[in-house]
Amino acid sequence: MKFIPDYNAISEAHSRVKQYINKTPVFTSTTVNEIFNAQVYFKCENYQKMGAFKFRGAMNALCQFSGEQKKAGVIAFSSGNHAQAIALAAKLLNISATIVMPQDAPQAKVTATRGYGGKVIFYDRYTENCEEIGRHLAEKHGMTLIPPFDHPHIIAGQGTVAKELFEEVGELDALFIPLGGGGLLSGSALSAAHLSPTCRIFGVEPAAGNDGQQSFKKGEIVHIETPKTIADGAQTQHLGQHTFNIIRHLVEDILTASDEELIDTMYFLAERMKIVVEPTGCLGFAAAKSMREQLKGQRIGIILSGGNIDMKRYASLLANKN
């Protein structure tokens, strides 16, 4: 089946962005391998520029702007990581960036977005539609709107995460990936289909916002209210048309993790592996831990998608661990 984008688009994206991105490390842990009785590889996108995988897609999208688009500027809507990614990519390419962010976005993400030169416009995520605001401002000012996940250039850029992982460690039996709007999951699934065809792909979203799981089972995109979860990077109301089309054909299953499981996972990663990972970034590992009995003897990949969390909030979440 022909997908848009396809693996060629991911390969081209990698060539386009690798001069700008960090080739993030792949970590292993003897403790984790013993707990799983398996070989587990962590792809650590918390060490990516601006602290999350989103920089890859943003850079790939903005690198393809025409002269006119660069002059007019870019606009994006995001709860945080896409905002920072677009702001930083725009700064590096000398493009003006306007970011529509929710009023309750983590302060660290707002500060970082502004620090990268982005102009921030706030909205109420529970009463206003950020996509409508973004489209209106784009039309009014002639800017190019780059959505956080449902765009071929974004998906292709995010697919470079798994591409690097497979190229470094070889084929895997299973890969666990955080799921919000589906950019990382769909891009990873495309890379896996080409580089590790027998690898089972699992998307993981917050239990409070399982629209992806519902969509996967129903065979069509399900819309939900904005979920209340500590995984602020996955507070999406629905998957995208592009991302869902890839996910429904190439993904094994969509799993969920509770906020309590995410806190436990954050604590484990900090204590045992000395890694700071934001709640959304812990989704894949949280789900893998819960099904570790089924993974014995296998080669497992886990994408830690980002580490952007306010330190006071991080300390508070870990302090309240049961």
From TrEMBL:
Top-level lineage group: Bacteria
Cofactor(s), names only, from the UniProt record: pyridoxal 5'-phosphate
Keyword annotations from UniProtKB, A to Z: Lyase, Pyridoxal phosphate
GO molecular function, one term: ATP binding
InterPro entries hit by this protein: TrpB-like_PALP (IPR001926), TrpB-like_PALP_sf (IPR036052)
All copies of domain Tryptophan synthase beta chain-like PALP, residue ranges: 18-306
Pfam families: PALP
Similarity-based family: Belongs to the serine/threonine dehydratase family.
NCBIfam families xrefs: PRK07048.1
Name of the protein in its database record: Pyridoxal-phosphate dependent enzyme
Organism: Xenorhabdus miraniensis
Taxonomic classification: Bacteria, Pseudomonadati, Pseudomonadota, Gammaproteobacteria, Enterobacterales
